[in-house]
Amino acid sequence: MDRSGGQALRVLAQFVAGPLVRERLRPHRDWLDVRFCAESDDATFQAELPEAQVLWHVLRPLSASDIERATRLQLIHKLGAGVNTIALDAAAARAIAVANMPGANAPSVAESALLLMLAAMRRLPQLDRATRAGHGWPTDPAPTEQVRDLGACTVGLVGYGNIARTLERILQAIGATVLHTSTRDDGSPAWRPWPDLLTDCDVVSLHLPLTPTTERLLDRAALDRMRPGAVLVNTARGGLVDESALVDALRAGRLGAAGLDVFAVEPVSPDNPLLTLPNVVLTPHVAWQTADTFGRYLDRAVDNCRRLRDGAPLADLVGPGAHG
């Protein structure tokens, strides 16, 4: 059954499209009407929302009031895996399907996590600034005494889904010992309970969804359990970490460094103290953002739109209405 009534399916995409995205969508223009809106452009978002039948959602929080205004909406498709930015109960109450894209961004986020590990451990930002300033050969003995080869380290993965497993293979290829923790003992020799993983690892990398259970999982007590000089990497969700406690641990030198792509409040505030610390490497929630990942996102998004048009079962449904 064609649920679009013979009209082009109206899609509101919460991102700015470049030429590659538009070219990839060109073959579908006869049945797919995609309107683009920057996540910071709330005026356009609110103007387009009432006519949208499908929302391609990225990061801007989608509230219950937004969903109430979306009177034609049939599908919210998250471009990514985490759906904590969507008012799922409100969508279920309106019988609006919610889908995500598990695994689509795994290669890109895994590579970004590796990038942040190496950049934080090897003091890349400081060395880059010093080299550009013409400071010559470094005289600080700390790199010789403190900087490690990642391949000589033990890395702990918190969460063990698609991204963590992809990263595990990369880390093992360069010689690192890789441990992981998840909700239960999976029988692997590399599994550790959460407290043990913190004490056993030189690097801890977060790969969990943000839920009421995982919020501020890495609190002050957990940070205190980590090895002196350890490195924290977070490409998952900023809310997993108590940022105030993290700042204190980095300032005091209990942690050696951090590589962060995500923050408790996004976009990150200019007065966030993490931005002032020399032992922190920062990126603005772009670990997933590559042409390859976006290609996978578009393929899945278009496929689910086609399913919606044809009345076929939707793929990768999540939330309270997933089985309804």
UniProtKB/TrEMBL annotation:
D-isomer specific 2-hydroxyacid dehydrogenase NAD-binding domain residues: 115-287
Domain of life: Bacteria
Classification via InterPro entries: D-isomer_2-hydroxyacid_DH, D-isomer_2_OHA_DH_cat_dom, D-isomer_DH_CS, D-isomer_DH_NAD-bd, NAD(P)-bd_dom_sf
Keywords of the record: NAD, Oxidoreductase
Keyword Repeat in record: no
Location of the D-isomer specific 2-hydroxyacid dehydrogenase catalytic domain: 30-318
Record has Oxidoreductase as a keyword: yes
SUPFAM superfamilies: Formate/glycerate dehydrogenase catalytic domain-like (SSF52283), NAD(P)-binding Rossmann-fold domains (SSF51735)
CDD domains in the record: 2-Hacid_dh_11
PANTHER family, alphabetized: 2-HYDROXYACID DEHYDROGENASE YGL185C-RELATED (PTHR10996:SF178), 2-HYDROXYACID DEHYDROGENASE-RELATED (PTHR10996)
Protein family per UniProt: Belongs to the D-isomer specific 2-hydroxyacid dehydrogenase family.
Protein name: 2-hydroxyacid dehydrogenase
Organism: Skermania pinensis
